[in-house]
Description:
By secondary structure, the chain is an alpha/beta fold. The protein has helices at 28-43, 72-77, 120-128, 183-187; strands at 2-7, 12-22, 48-51, 54-66, 83-89, 98-99, 106-110, 200-203. Strands 1, 2, 3, 4, 5, 6, 7 and 8 form an eight-stranded mixed sheet that branches. The longest helix is centred in the first third of the chain and has 16 residues, at 28-43.
Amino acid sequence: MGEAEIITNRQQLVIHSLLFFYGDAADDGLATQVAKDIADHWNEPDVTATIDKKPYRIVFDIQGNWHPALTPEMVFENDNPRNNYFRIEEFALGNISFVDGQPCNTGYFKLENLLYNSTTAAHEYGHTLGLPHPTNLDIRGKGQPGIMYPRGTICDPAFQYDPLAAPGAKGGTLTPFKRKVLPSDIELLKLHRLRFSTGRAVIGGFSSVFHNRHSPAG
């Protein structure tokens, strides 16, 4: 979730998102790294949007903060569209990271999914802005997978966990390390349809879920 701001003198449309991280595996360094990973991925296409017949360069301003003292009330009572809240733990039920809907401003990240230049955080951020998984999950012959394709997608060998594996077999599906934010992903945000008031608009939506730590016993 975020707040879109038109900055006329710079001809920019800036998407501001402030990410608060809590949980036993979160720390200040990880908060900074994850926010930078998301910003790097979403700014890579370097595209423009046309708002009221004027072109604006799209810039994603993503800031990360470690908030070990976060309380459920802070999440429930928040009404700032820039604020997002994600728990980070080494263990997650289902062994996956997730967010609380499309769009949303909360979720739960498995630590391992955020390391080694994975695109998981950038993928989940797309969900917070309202983007779903694509409906066609067999994209052989179509080249570079966009950021919103999930694990399990059948793709060209170069983008598989194992380029030599048969499509759909073990190792023969999309590795999250090979996804990219494409111009088409940003087009799907339909930024030209946002309702701006005094140059600002909300993108995404409030889910406001505070997550307790998962345990192997459930």
